Amino acid sequence: MQDDPFARAVERAQATEQAQAHAVRQRRQQQWSSGNRTAFRTHATVFVAVNLLLFMIWLTTWQLAGGTSYPWFLWPLLGWGVGLAAHYAAVRNHLHRGGGAPAAAQPAAGPSKADELARLADLHRAGSLSDEEFTAAKADLLGAP
């Protein structure tokens, strides 16, 4: 740890901002994962219900035709099954690799307080700010009275 109190304040501010950003990413990941699991469960439920209905329709026509009807219900079952398997693979891959929301969906952030404090410290060290100006700017940035 450094002896300069201002440098320690910058380190604390950076650590706090990193912890907050990590917490936001974790919360966003949990919401994203929960939504993906719910969407897959809904897709699987509709898949089973519709294909069961198609099978029942085929079974009825098969009995009416005297057992000579072609099992046409297999084609939608297989086609939709491929889509359901792809959905499962996408959700499973996303959950295992720990991906969050797409980067484009995240808002661009301005400079953080830690960045501003570091910039003020650089200006003070370079002599661009006097001790009084530096103290006043730091207090203003940190919201001190």
Question: Describe it for me?
Answer:
The chain is mainly alpha-helical and about 140 residues long. It has helices at about 5-65, 75-95, 115-125, 130-140. The model is unreliable at about 100-105 (pLDDT under 50). This is 2TM domain-containing protein.
Stretches where pLDDT is under 50 for at least 5 consecutive residues are 100-105
Kindly, what is the distance between the CA atoms of the first and last residues, rounded to a whole number of angstroms?
27 Å
Oligomer: single chain
Instruction: Report the portion of residues in β strands.
Output: under 5%
Number of helices: 4
- What order do the helices and strands follow? HHHH
Characterize the biggest β-sheet.
Answer: none
Helix content, binned percent: over 70%
What's the alpha carbon Rg, rounded to whole Å? Answer: 30 Å
Summing up helix and strand content along with how strands pair, one would put the structural category as mainly alpha
- How many strands appear in the DSSP assignment? 0
Rounded average pLDDT: 82
Shape field: rod-shaped
